[in-house]
Amino acid sequence: MKKSIMIWVISAIVYLGVVIGGYSVYASMNPKMGEQTSHVLNDQREKY
Amino acid sequence: MSQKEATLQISGMTCAACATRIEKGLKKIEGVEDATVNFALEKTNIKYDPEKADIAKFKEKVQSLGYNVVSDKVEFDITGMTCAACANKIEKRLNKLDGIEKATVNFALESVLVEYSPNQVSVSDMKETIKKLGYTLEQKQEKSGEQVDHRQKEIEKQQGKFLFSLILSFPLLWAMVSHFEFTRFIWLPDMFMNPWVQLALATPVQFIVGGQFYVGAYKALRNKSANMDVLVALGTSAAYFYSLYLSIKSIGSGAHMVELYYETSAVLITLIILGKLFEAKAKGRSSEAIKKLMGLQAKTATVMRDGQEMNIPIEEVLVGDIVYVKPGEKVPVDGEIMEGRSALDESMLTGESIPIDKTVGDTVIGSTINKNGFLKIKATKVGKDTALAQIIKVVEEAQGSKAPIQRLADVISGIFVPIVVGIAIVTFLVWYFFLSPGEFAEALEKFIAVLVIACPCALGLATPTSIMAGSGRAAEFGILFKGGEHLEMTHRLDTIILDKTGTVTNGKPSLTDVLLTEGMDETEFLKLVGTAERNSEHPLAEAIVEGIKEKGIELGSSDLFEAIPGFGIRSTVNGKQLFIGTRRLMAKHHIDVGDELSKMETLEKQGKTAMLVAIDGHYAGIVAVADTIKETSKEAIARLQNMGLEVVMITGDNTQTAKAIADQVGIKHVIAEVLPEGKAEEVKKLQQVGKKVAMVGDGINDAPALATADIGMAIGTGTDVAMEAADITLIRGDLMSIADAIFMSKKTITNIKQNLFWALAYNCIGIPIAAAGFLAPWLAGAAMAFSSVSVVLNALRLQRIKLKA
């Protein structure tokens, strides 16, 4: 892969990592947000 | 008033509307007579008055419209400078050359940096010019960054952006896919449904990757026009900013699962970038013919200089150099064989697969392959004068030209975007007020879908890509169309006028018949005739001598020779007196020919020129010569007739001879005894009765007729005169190329029509579907991205067409 393309790919991965990491840190401080779900689970949760 | 032409490479165009805008802008410059922009080739061709306009002005104009003119840079070391005045002189001279944008000489470093347009001036032109001033330019080994193909750089940049966009859009797409009823079971990390995470992922895609659409849209709107960028920027911005509004609104409301459209904007941008990437790659392939032709050129040549054999770069070969070509090597330049005999493979230029035997005195074309013999060649044409360079020039010009059929596409793409924006607004209003009253999100979705489904890209690419592929493919078979208009016109032809000599026939008489009186020995007879005729310079005598030599008969020398103009010759060979010539010559010398005149008449009816031979006062026989018919003429004419074309033969010869030749090749309509200037009149007569006429000739004495005809086809080996005079040059001297040219034209025009149909139909069908709400925005984006790719791929089918050659 060419260097210029590599730079774009690495930038995207790093940025995605930062977003996911940032959210995880925020979610760990707010336990209600840390759950993983699907739409089905979410629908069930909303029913209750 | 003098007129000049300039070709500039442009970057930054995104659709046909950009090309139209540049064209309009350039035409507004004082002194510009015409300007055409080829979107597919990314080139503009400008005809201008050099006293009123110059390249700098064009560059400025193109830049002011928001695009760039790509120029190459080259750096030379200069030798021979002694003072600053030398530097000044070199700089001035280089700056005066056409195609040089800026030349800056650094006296201290003894170097010069030149910015130039490679389409107009070559490195060897610069070297040659400065050499005349007494200095030497040596190109520096390292090329500047800008010399790397800008297209390749652009493709790499778009590849990078696409991957960046894909990585960040993937979580958004994941969240979107799991929204569907049938995919709701898919596990989805909670974070990807968070509006702020979605915002964080969509923002770089919207503004870093999609920034190019905002820039393009701004440039277009600043110039009071609209292009594809406007549609993409509007559509994706609507989705992004509406989602942003909803995200902000959700703060404090506690809603976690608000209906957002970040994925719409991000996925749209990703898909459009992917489409552009495919388009750029496919566009590159459509100009493959030129790359192939350029690749044919030999890189080095072995020449004899100062008594030494040396291997030098091809650019340094000069006219008059003696070049050595070993078996298996490429002939480096055009030239004439001085020594040696070999078969040359000319298939790369003519499409003719059988190697052609060549010997001393024959001309050879640069880039052909020497198959088996060693050749010593005298260079007659080098650099841009070689047949290959001229072929490349003609093909490039044809590929860059516009066919009249493109006007429709130009008109539509010019007004397309404002109309689409109008339709999108109407769609939004109808949905918001009537179909789903008060449902802003739903109306917005339809608005976005309409904006992105409609793109004038496919429309802009429909014609130029087909012209590029079609003319390129034809060039591979030795058929050179001078422009798109000729490629288009050729398919309308219904009448083909063939010049006889050199077109239907080989244009070179040869010995065809030898008739002897009883008891005469053929070898002895031919030896006497050949020896007598070898002193004559008449073309018919040359044909007789050549024919006799081919039979392996050795000729002697004559004791006496006398040419009797209009009658024939008188000669004495080995003590025998010979008369060779017409009936009148025999009558004049009281030679009894008896019943043999009937044989002579039969030969003449067959289109042959017969000469009576008398030895020592007695009739001895007849020798006849005729211009031989080309091997493929009959088959080619039958093919033209089967295509529904009327084939006419035109000649200055007498009716009897003309008819004899016409009968042999199957032509029914003959126009004989026509002077060269009368040929154009005959073409006009046919045009006046509504015929679309092609004139096929050798391009020199047929020039007026070639120019008068709807299409002039020159049969030749790509020489300057032939190429200048005709609309199409058929490099192979074979009439099969005429049918191939018409076939190629028909295929190309059909391809263009298919492209235009699908490009228009795609929009005509796509817009109502999107407005009716049957198309999700991301699906509309994908369809739009692939519409232009499909048009280019369809055009590339032309590159696989098989011709008879």
UniProtKB/TrEMBL annotation, chain B:
Q: Which UniProt keywords apply?
A: ATP-binding, Cell membrane, Copper, Copper transport, Ion transport, Magnesium, Membrane, Metal-binding, Nucleotide-binding, Phosphoprotein, Repeat, Translocase, Transmembrane, Transmembrane helix, Transport
The UniProt record lists the keyword Translocase = yes
Q: How does it sit in the membrane?
A: Multi-pass membrane protein
Enzyme Commission number(s) of this protein: 7.2.2.8
From its record, what is one biological process in GO terms? copper ion homeostasis
Transmembrane intervals: 160-177, 197-218, 230-248, 260-278, 411-435, 447-469, 755-772, 778-796
State the name under which the record lists this protein.
Copper-exporting P-type ATPase
List the Gene3D superfamilies hit by this protein, alphabetically.
3.30.70.100, Calcium-transporting ATPase, cytoplasmic domain N, Calcium-transporting ATPase, cytoplasmic transduction domain A, HAD superfamily/HAD-like
Please give the organism: Thermoflavimicrobium daqui
Write out the similarity annotation. Answer: Belongs to the cation transport ATPase (P-type) (TC 3.A.3) family. Type IB subfamily.
Q: Which GO terms describe its cellular component?
A: plasma membrane
What InterPro entries does the database record attribute to this sequence? ATPase_P-typ_cyto_dom_N, ATPase_P-typ_P_site, ATPase_P-typ_TM_dom_sf, ATPase_P-typ_transduc_dom_A_sf, ATPase_P-type_domA, HAD-like_sf, HAD_sf, Heavy-metal-associated_CS
Q: Per its record, what are the GO molecular function terms?
A: ATP binding; ATP hydrolysis activity; copper ion binding; P-type divalent copper transporter activity; P-type monovalent copper transporter activity
| Record function comment | Involved in copper export.
Q: What is its main location?
A: membrane
State its location(s).
Cell membrane
- Keyword Membrane listed? The answer is yes
HMA domain spans which residues? 4-70, 72-138
User: What catalytic activity is recorded?
Assistant: Cu(+)(in) + ATP + H2O = Cu(+)(out) + ADP + phosphate + H(+)
